[in-house]
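Protein entry
_____________
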Amino acid sequence: MDLINTTETVSLEASQETLPNADDEIEESKPVERQTFEQVVALHKERNTSKVIVRFRAIGNAPILKQSFYKITASNKFQTVIQFLRKELKYQGSDPLFLYINSAFSPSPDATVATLHKCFNTDGHLIINYCTTAAWG
């Protein structure tokens, strides 16, 4: 069986659009409003006050938590949730622990809890399933 190499030629045409010249007038930008340190800290505290209700569900042979509902700060990363659950279960870093959202997928540790809640909440709760062996996806 002979293999034939074919090459296609692609012609690039110059764009008809014109770019602005440096000589053209540039609109003056509005002055940037400066914030004081106290204003930035106050704004940061306001963002951290929103909480998300998280429900943990054990799967398989994973230990069951005494309390399954927790309020977690929405601006936290999912990594914080993983560390929190490890602490509650008294798991070491070497112990296997798998977390899933709505029994479907495992989110990235750098995803924020607020984004996960916004996209995947069920009845206003973020349901996180956890187990000691890989269960889904």
